[in-house]
């Protein structure tokens, strides 16, 4: 029962069908990626932007209502307002210094890497005192 692959019609038919299925699968995956990139991701980004906008509006409305309350009752919450402003300033200063330190570390790291790149590119050159 030695059948060569070139003479086995059933094997040829199966290989042909597998090749067709694989090419069809490649087309389906390509269509899926195209649809996902064009529609699904953009719709999700739009939904996320709408949620952010809604929350900003809600936060603004809340802040306005609290400001109206403070204006209507100036003596009651001045200590709370002052404490809140101090806390907000401390948080803002902490974020500023945290970002500043991360940036300076990142900048130094990038500078160190660029110096390393320059040293690597200059290894093929002779020092200036050897001419």
UniProtKB/TrEMBL annotation:
Region Disordered: what ranges?
Answer: 109-131
Q: Does the keyword Membrane apply?
A: yes
Q: Does the keyword Transmembrane apply?
A: yes
Q: Cite the source lineage.
A: Bacteria, Pseudomonadati, Verrucomicrobiota, Verrucomicrobiia, Verrucomicrobiales
Q: Which residues cross the membrane?
A: 78-98
Highest taxon of the source?
Answer: Bacteria
List, as start-end ranges, the regions of compositional bias called Polar residues: 120-131
Q: State the protein's name.
A: DUF883 domain-containing protein
Q: Which UniProt keywords apply?
A: Membrane, Transmembrane, Transmembrane helix
């Amino acid at each position: 029962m030695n059948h060569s692959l070139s003479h086995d019609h059933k094997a040829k038919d199966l290989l042909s069908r597998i090749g067709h299925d694989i090419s069809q699968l490649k087309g389906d995956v390509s269509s899926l990626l195209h649809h996902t990139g064009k529609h699904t991701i953009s719709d999700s980004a739009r939904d996320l932007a709408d949620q952010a906008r809604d929350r900003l509006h809600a936060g603004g409305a809340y802040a306005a209502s609290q400001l109206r309350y403070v204006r209507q009752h100036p003596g009651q919450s001045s200590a709370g307002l002052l404490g809140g402003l101090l806390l907000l300033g401390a948080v803002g200063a902490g974020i500023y210094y945290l970002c500043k330190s991360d940036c300076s570390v990142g900048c130094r790291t990038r500078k160190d890497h660029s110096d390393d790149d320059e040293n690597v590119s200059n290894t093929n050159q002779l020092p200036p005192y050897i001419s």
